[in-house]
Each structure stands twice: as C-alpha cells, then as structure tokens.
Amino acid sequence: MPNHTGAQANQIRKRGNIRGGEAGSAGAANPNYRLSLGWSGECCGVSMVPPPRIVRAWLESPAVGVIELDRDWDLASPPRFSLGRHCPSPSGLEASPPLPAARHFGYLAEPGGALCFVLSPEETAELGGASAEVYLAGDFNAWQDAIGRPEWRLHPGELEGRPVRIWRGDSARFLSAAGLRFKFVTGEHHWLVPPAEAPNVVRDAQGNVNRVLDPRRTGRHLWRFSLSGPLSLAEAWRAGWADGAGESVALQPGAFFYELRSDLPLGALVRGEETCFRLFAPRARHVTLHLAREPSGMGETLACALGPAAGADGAAGVWEVVLDRNLHGWFYWYTIEGVHPGLDPAARPAPRPRSPPPCRRRPRRRAAPPAGPANGARRSRT
Question: Cα–Cα distance between 140 and 136 in angstroms, integer?
Fold first, then answer.
C-alpha cells in the first residue's frame, strides 16, 4: 500500500468509508458476501465479492454429505448451507474433508502449507500390495523422468482410516500457476487412469487423460456436513445457500447407495396358505402391489400397499407384504412412487394417487437377518 500524507489519508478515509447501516444491510442480506478493497493511486474502491457457486452435492451416508464449490471458501467463518428442512449448523460443517478430496481431485492442501497428492483407497487396493511402487509425475518433473526417483515416490498412509498412497511437498511449487497436469504411474511404467467422474480430468490433443491442478480449489471448496438424523432417500433433496441466494443443486446419493443390500429372498414367495411379496426399492416413497387372476386384468383383482421390512432390511430398501392366501398362479405387478432419476427434482411432483384398499398383513414374529450379500437374488433399484 502506498504512503500518504495526513490530508491524503483523510480524503481516502472519507471516500472509502462505509456507513454502518449500509454495511450492516449488506451483511444481513447475504452473510456469505465479503468486502474487497482495491487501491488505485489515492483512491480506495470497495466492492462486494459474491460467494462461490455450489456446483455439486452428494451423500456419503443418509446423514452425512459433501457440498462442492467452484472455488475455495476464503472467509474465516464457515459457509451457511441449506437442505430445506435440514440446515447444517456451522458446528456440523467440516472444511477440506481429506477422503472426498483424494477420491475426486487427487490432491489437497494441508493447513501447514504442504500439498498432498493422494492415490484414493479404491486405486490403492488395485495395486496388489504394499510393495508396489507408485510415483507422482507431471508437468513439474518431466513426466517419465519421475519413475524410479525416490523423491517422487508415494508412501503408504491413511485418510479417515482408509489405506492410501501419499506424496507431500511445498504447495508454492505447484499452485503458483494454474493448469499444471499430473498423473500417477507405477514403477513398471503403468499409468493409472484417473476416474472418469473426477472433476479435474483433462484430455490433450493426443487423447491422453490427466488430472489438472487448480490453485482456486485446494480443499476448502469441499465442505462435509453432518445431520442429526438420516435423510429419506425417497425425497428429492437440494443443496443451496441458507439465505436463498444463487441456484441450488440436486443432492445425489453417493457410493453407499450402490452398496445397499439385503439377504432376504425377493419376489413372490408362496408358503402354505400365505404369500409374501418382497421388492428391493430403496428410493421408493410408496409401493403398491397389484394382483390379477387373469393376465388381461379381467376377473378377480387385488391391490394393496407394501411397507418397509423390519430392521436393517427395511432400512436398506426392502418392501414387503404378507397375504393370508395362497396366490400360486396369479399375475402380479407393482406401481412405485418415488424419486425418478430422469426427472428434474425441482419440478412440481405429480398428484399422489388414491391409496389402495388396505390388505391384511401378518406381522413378522422372527428377527430379520442382518444385511449382507444378496445371495444371488435379483435386485432392482428405482
């Protein structure tokens, strides 16, 4: 900042002063905005810098998720997000969660000034053992020349209890300029292809796929939130700013969703004088069973609602109903109300159909088996 005389400084203070009411109004309207001071000669310009944009959000579990911004959050106070009825408080937010950063970007900055390049747990597991050598290569070390050099070798480590490979170095070397590309390579010259869903993947003119370093996204663009209770997977949740500014994004189920399973037998199960119907539909809000004696739908028909199975199986997404009747030879199908992945979650939902007539349902008296492999049962997801 240039030196000024006392008179010049007073003039600058007069021109650059913001009235308390004006500043308070701006802060009350959007606490995520910050003031930016720009000096030009004797003049000080004051502008409001808009907050980063929310670009993606996903769930790591029904009660824990991650919100991704288009650049690092540089304010001391944490951002304020909203999921509608669930609004994470600052105490429920964690900046720079290391495991999501490793999985999606392959690097993150540590508070002490070091930059970590990380091979994710999934990629580490594919190496075939701790003895496999992995190196960091990129525009900063002439790519192939890094192979076999100890200073570029990744070492075994842990992130959130998961085994990974890590390389640490001074962040200033890598973040001083944008666009540096990098990739991981084994000691046998096998280049590890980045995950297709990685946000920082780039392809060059020769078709080579690499990752790129972005100085604006060093870890504080990722914020993990924790909720007091699980979110229903049958609802279309959206992540946005608590003050309603900007656009919100759909909150998508993460990898955990594809690991939901049950070892209960599924389908139509005839047992003596009763028939049990089970369906695997973790994103369903309502499930209705339809039965007909004839495929044309003529003659006797039945319709009744399924409910979540007891215990862990219901939590995993199993719906069931037990009817006190042997229905061998009947035709059946389901109608399912819930989240449709091909529709805009922000669109107005269709009117809910009338509830079908109730059916008698026999309560289960035995404990549900623990959730585990599906024993080859065919599963379907909504």
Answer: 10
